[in-house]
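May I ask for whichever protein you like with its backbone structure tokens?
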Amino acid sequence: MTASNRRPLFWLCGLALAATSLSHQPSALADAPSDEAVIEQRRAAAKSKYQEGAAAYSAGHFKDAVDLFLAADRLAPSAPLSFNIARAYEKLADDAGALRWYRDYLRRNPEASNAATVRPLIAALAESLRKKGVQQLTVITSPPGATLAVDDQAVGVTPWTGELSPGAHHLQLNLRGYADSETNLSLAADQPLDVSVRLEQPQTPASVQAPPLTPTPPPSATPAPEAASHGKKLGVVPWVTLAAGTAALGGALTFELLRRSAESDAKDAQTQLEYQEKLETMQSRQTAARIFLGAGGALLLGGGLMLLLDKGSSSHSTSAGLICLPNGCTAAARGNF
């Protein structure tokens, strides 16, 4: 068969294979895998990662072993994986990493058969951190995934493990849909610490009971007796007014004395110009004296009237005011006293 005859046959075979492969493609409307199938797939993937990690550990590739064990733990968390991760970190001389995962191992399996061996390892690793001036803190929330801030500095999301200086610390937790949470703690220098926080959902506005409405009585045209009596209490205002009036009268007396002095100087003037200046000074002081006299009198009268009003009965109808005419101002009052 020539090459030209073989080409159509090659393309026909290719099309037949493509048609065969397409005919075996799953339908787009096929049922999704069941939950059990998904879990089994994750377990199979986790087992594969674990076996790769064990091989890397045996070969002395401890960093690769840590990464593979962590990948397996994300697929199917288990206490033995925590122990293996801790052992790999220990081989890397990473005290913080080893301490974190040994603690996680006992947290997941408190009744582990080798717990008596693991606890001394935890104590030794904690002592190593103490010598470095830090200690390990783990914060766990229910539910997880809350943003964590330590001493007003964001550090990550929960569950979170890190190293802090011993002493007092302030924790802030925030998770969408839950009320913010804050707590204070004291981290010992020689022992790691676990902090567990249960986040609470905030109270919805619909569940808040509104206070019962109290009927409001219609306004009355006649004020209440207590309100009328309180309105008559003027406090120290009358006394301040009387004091101001007394001061004004003192000012009037002062300017009157100064006026007389200017009048005497005018009589003793030697020239017409000097006489005119002294006369103008006398007139200005006379005007000031009259102003102070009028103001002082009005203030004294007003203060006296306010004292009378303040002491009067609430049933009496009284009024007071200041009447100003072109020649000056004076106080006036009317009513029953």
